[in-house]
Amino acid sequence: MTIFLFVAGLCLLIIGAEALVRGASRLATVIGISPLVIGLTVVAFGTSSPELAVSIKSALSGQASIALGNVIGSNIFNVLFILGLSALIVPLNVSQQLVRLDVPLMIGLSILVLIFSLDGNLSRTEGVIWVTGLAFYLWLLINQSRRENIEIKEEYAKEFGSYDGGGWIRNIGFVLCGLGLLVLGSRWLVDSAVSFAKYLGVSELVVGLTVVAAGTSLPEVVTSIIAAIRGERDIAVGNVVGSNIFNIMGVLGLASVVAPSGIDVSSAVIGLDIPVMIAAAMACLPIFFTGGVISRLEGVALLGYYVTYTLYLVLAASRHDALPRFSAVMLYFVIPLTVLTLMIVVVQETRRRNKGSPT
To answer: Where would you tag: which of 68, 86, 258, 291 has the fewest CB atoms within 10 A of its CB?
Structure first.
């Protein structure tokens, strides 16, 4: 029954997110909002609605660790798994707006999570700060979209601007139905995740970081992969970055506000999981910077890091004998080698651009 509720909850979340995005995007088109803004806001944030539903339900039910693990795990999953898999299918182009604004913002917000967590609690005041920041970010996006080039606008119009209006009642129905499915699906998913944690003898945080995070990120998986296959590569990348920003400011912010005493943050999360989220966000900047393309090789590297992180969580949860050796290899070999490689690539790209620029 627990497995059935978990799978059913995931299905309801995916269907609910799809209905919400479809209804909201069509209503936005009727109102006159540009397809680019719809793609950057309604779709990117709509695909994060499962994380929002699960995190708020968890916070209200006293399982705030699931809410925290869901956001951190989803952000790690989005960058390492979804971007990695999408780039493996087809190399992804990266717009300059992402390099100039969105990725630095994602990095800054990830670091802010660490700063806010140092006292062991994410308070309601900090949640209000994030939600206020989200409102300002939306305003900034709408203004920024007016200056995007024609090619990007046409790409988003092709994906989101084909609706010819009408059907207000039907699309409002889509939105309401989607919200209802998200609420019911989140309840089933959270309840079954708590049962899983008790049965397996692991913490609710670990379940939130892995199973729940991957499950609630399925809408982002589908959206980004389909966009990559169709050649809509700005949408594939923008969806991931936009969702990560919303996860922190919207999902974690609202969860911190509604949780009775904020969200407690353990020393283990501060020492490992949040730094991994920051590292994943920071890895985007040099990768996005070099040539404006996420190559297949870089996609393989991102996927490899996600597998490594998940393996570490499994070894730590099971207290496996191989954990000390595994940690030593990661700390003293893999991570330094990766940092050195990224630095070399950035230096080479900088020199290439300087040679190509007029004197």
So the answer is: 291
Task: Look at residue 261 and give its three-state secondary structure.
Answer: coil
Q: Using an 8 Å Cβ cutoff, are 63 and 190 in contact?
A: yes
Select from 241, 249, 198 the least CA-distant residue to 55: 249
pLDDT, one tens digit per residue, over 162-201 is: 545 556 777 778 778 877 887 787 778 777 877 777 776 7
Q: Cα separation of 35 and 235, whole Å? A: 11
Q: From CA 184, how far away is CA 206, in angstroms rounded?
A: 23
- Name 90's bridge partners: none
- Sheet strands (E) in the chain: 92-93, 121-122, 263-264, 293-294
- Paired sense of beta strands 263-264 and 293-294, if any: unpaired
- Half-sphere exposure (CA, 13 Å, Cβ side) for 260? 5
| pLDDT 10s digits, 300-343 | 888 888 888 888 887 877 777 777 777 777 666 766 767 776 67
Give the closest residue to 259 by CA, choosing from 114, 128, 76. Answer: 128
Q: Which residues contact 63 (CB under 8 A, 6 or more apart)?
A: 190, 194, 204
